[in-house]
Design a protein that fits this description.
It holds the Pfam family PEP_mutase. By secondary structure, this protein is α/β, with parallel strands linked by helices. Helices cover 49% and strands 13% of the residues. An eight-stranded parallel beta barrel has the order 1-2-3-4-5-6-7-8, surrounded by eight helices.
Length: 295
């Protein structure tokens, strides 16, 4: 499955930025692909929250991300961008992370410059590695990939810990080391987005975390600025979590689900999403080829 090259072609041929939804589960990935998305982001935050009910503060690592990636890859054929946090160590750890995620089906792998334990880019209390350490880890990621089509996304959180000048300098250094896409997380104004677009080379990634530090920006506005990738890493998670919190509160209070009858997905629709028809058709085709039973 040459999904890395598919992703590169998608980015090269896109008319404006490619909008990519984030997921933490295979079911979300199925829904995203069914909606027409041509690439999906396996989000560290969404994986931590959906699969383990913990915040994005370094409580999960490579094993959990890889498990989530493999589940999503089994459910979808589109290219997958994967949040690999800090790479989980220094040069050798980063290389091992790249190898394992490539083997599990990653089309693009994102590595950031925070110290471990990392924190969500829109939380306070972060720290970043010295620039020399950050640069060598990106160098390791680029050199470690076994498929030249695999994209390396280099993220910096230095906007929050230092300033935008430092973040832009790091992004430029990452680009010089061969990173395919640059991601300055949590810019805080339209003016900062404009500077990133104008001063950072190569493919640029934006992150839309609603109610986070970056102002709400439309796809058309990102196109005008010159960003190539726009991630929505936790939107589906937060919509769904609000819904099930509200549903459980209603169920506990009322004792039945009747008030949700107009909002709940039908069993047939859910079975269609999880591929029941295809499985049943496969079973029928296999059983139809059974010959007579011999004594």
């Amino acid at each position: 499955m040459e999904t890395g090259m598919t992703l590169r072609k998608l980015l090269a041929q896109a008319d404006g930025p490619v909008v990519i939804p984030g997921v933490g589960t295979a079911l979300e990935a199925r829904a995203a692909e069914a909606a027409g998305f041509e690439a999906i982001y396996v989000s560290g935050y969404a994986t931590a929250a959906w699969r383990h009910a913990v915040p994005d503060i370094g409580l999960i690592a490579l094993a959990e991300i890889r498990e989530a990636l493999e589940a999503v890859r089994s459910a979808t054929t589109v290219p997958l961008l994967v949040d690999a946090d800090t790479g989980y160590g220094d040069v050798s750890n980063v290389a091992d992370t790249i190898h394992r995620l490539e083997a599990s089906g990653a089309s693009a792998i994102q590595v950031e410059d925070q110290t471990w334990p990392k924190r969500c880019g829109h939380l306070t209390g972060k720290s970043v590695e010295p620039i020399e350490v950050a640069v060598r880890k990106v160098r390791a990621a680029v050199r470690a990939r076994r498929d030249d089509a695999t994209l390396i996304i280099a993220r910096t959180d230095a906007r929050a810990t230092h300033d935008l000048d430092e973040a832009i300098e790091r992004a430029r250094r990452f680009h010089a080391e061969g990173a395919d896409a640059l991601f300055i997380d949590a810019p805080e104004s339209r003016e900062e987005l404009e500077r990133i677009a104008a001063e950072v080379p190569g493919l640029k990634v934006a992150n839309m975390s609603e109610s986070g530090r970056t102002p709400s920006t439309t796809r058309a506005e990102f196109a005008e600025l010159g960003f190539e990738i726009v991630l929505y890493p936790t939107s589906a998670l937060r919509i769904a979590s609000r819904m099930f919190v509200e549903f459980f509160a209603d169920l506990a209070r009322e004792g039945d689900s009747s008030s949700w009858s107009g909002r709940i997905q039908s069993l047939d629709a859910l079975n269609a999403l999880v591929g029941l028809r295809e499985i049943e058709e496969f079973e029928r085709a296999v059983l139809a080829d059974d010959g007579p039973i011999r004594a």
